[in-house]
Amino acid sequence: MVFTLLLAVQVAAAALALFASRFVKRYFDSYRIYQKIKHYPGPRSESLLLGNRELPSRPDRHNVFIEWNNKYGSVLRRRFADTHILQVTDPAIIAEALRNKDLDKQPLSKALNYFAGPHSLPTLLTSGSNERWKASRKAAATAFSTANMRAQFPNIRLACSQLIEVLKGMGPNEVVDMDNALCRESLDVIGRVGFGVDMGATHSLRDTDKSGEAMEATAGALLEADRRMNDPIRKYLFWRQDVRAGTAVTKRFHSIMQRLVDGMRKQRPEESSIAAHLLDIQDPETGKPITDERLLPEVSTLFMAGFETTGHTAAWVVYTVSQHPQVEAKIVEELKSLDLLATPEQPQPRPIQWDDVPKLTYLTAVIKETMRIYPAAGGASMRRSKTGKDVVLGGGKLVVPAGVALHMPITAVHHNEAIWENAKAFIPERFLEEGAEDAKGVPKVGGRQPQRFVPFTQGARDCVGQTLARLNLSTTLAQLFGSFSFRLAEEMGGPEGVRAAEMTSITLSCTKGMKMHAIARVPS
Ligand code: HEM
């Protein structure tokens, strides 16, 4: 008995010593890195041990990135625990960094791997730039080709037509959360375009409705992933009711994804669908198609990456247009010229066609200006040295030591007063000018003018689904504005209320949703 007790004490002491030595080593390494970057300016740490510990859980962190950029300039340092982060908003350095092969994407957090599949395997589409990522990226890039998007265009239009019918049934006095509605619509678009399946999210906008199951499960699982990212011990607190509910909703999401995978296996999907291309992914190690265990997280990743990003963006557009009547008037004029506007003579506008999309010049400028101010994935783009060596950028202007995370927050780039005139103002017309997306006056990188408008970032790891995102936004918003005018509901508290409720979790949205009145242009 005494011997067992002594052994247990010794094992515990050894474990503690190991933990303490690892802890000390991590902070010692961190201090050595600090010596290399301490000449950059940056905010003071709130905690000796945890650094700028409040930032990751602040819902307004996108605005903090902007504030720090204005205060400390286009290269600054900050720290979270033993990780040093260099925040960069200089377009030339960003352009170079995103094309530098020695810098690799930071893998997804474990919480997002847990969201993606029951086995918590790292997803191929978002992992480091290895052979497996290449195989998956190639399949996804082909799936999102212009030819496939053209073939799938009727499916995009259909999801929005369904939403329009539901909105018409609600009438102008009812308050509708357009953020929720547009996230549902984007979920249905991915379901139809990707997998030939109606997820049923836009059949009704009521949460309690059975048709809202896919929406409730996807949004709920993503919220649980976000909570686990901000609180690493949350997953161990299994006795808490909210944690158990989060686990249950994630399981429901996984079973919906599993049904999609089963469907793909049972019947070969349409050649232009995303599913057909995912089935073609070959595992470079075995030379065989990837297993279901690997396929399911790829399917989930497309929903995770595509549904709230597109839905929130569309909701921000509806909001910004509701605040600028002169902008709405110009959209109306454009839609009228294309015969896409509901009028008393033609209460049902002509269905939008593929060839109409490039003609939506002004609406596209409005979408871009909204994405500049409210980039849905504004906190994205984290890179690290993958060679174990320091990476030199901008001819020595920036050295990224191995072990340091290079963060290029899109929100701060899009609000950088040094490259945007009147950055705070909503001026869609700026995107009508030739070369509006270029950072003029900034030196060229590899013979190309660096970009200042980067909602999907750039380089080999940019957004693989951006063709679908752009097409969905133009098609959906043209149809919505063709049939409705939107007014912000009183309960949102006006623009100040919206501003105060801006929230960055995985994506940028508004904690209150986006409650609006949808007023039909031609009352039925
Ligand atoms: C307005 C909508 C969207 C925005 C603003 C957006 C933004 C982004 C950004 C900024 C990244 C790069 C992050 C980084 O550099 O670390 C990214 C990556 C990605 N996006 Fe999107 N996205 C949108 C819609 C979509 C859609 C519709 C899909 C697919 C259905 C999608 C799939 C992906 C995937 C798979 C990646 C990872 C690519 C890789 O690492 O190789 N996104 N997105």
Secondary structure: elements and pairs:
Elements: H1 2-37, H2 61-72, E1 75-80, E2 83-88, H3 91-97, E3 103-105, H4 110-116, H5 131-143, H6 146-170, E4 176-177, H7 178-195, H8 213-230, H9 241-266, H10 274-279, H11 292-322, H12 325-337, H13 361-373, E5 382-385, E6 391-393, E7 398-400, E8 405-407, H14 410-414, H15 466-483, E9 484-488, H16 494-500, E10 502-504, E11 508-510, E12 515-520
Parallel strand pairs: 2-8
Antiparallel strand pairs: 1-2, 3-5, 4-12, 5-8, 6-7, 9-12, 10-11
The structure holds protoporphyrin IX containing FE.
Protoporphyrin IX containing FE is lined by residues 105, 125-126, 137, 190, 301-302, 305-306, 309-310, 313, 376-377, 380-381, 455-457, 461-465, 468-469.
Family: Belongs to the cytochrome P450 family.
Organism: Coccomyxa viridis
Protein name: G4768 protein
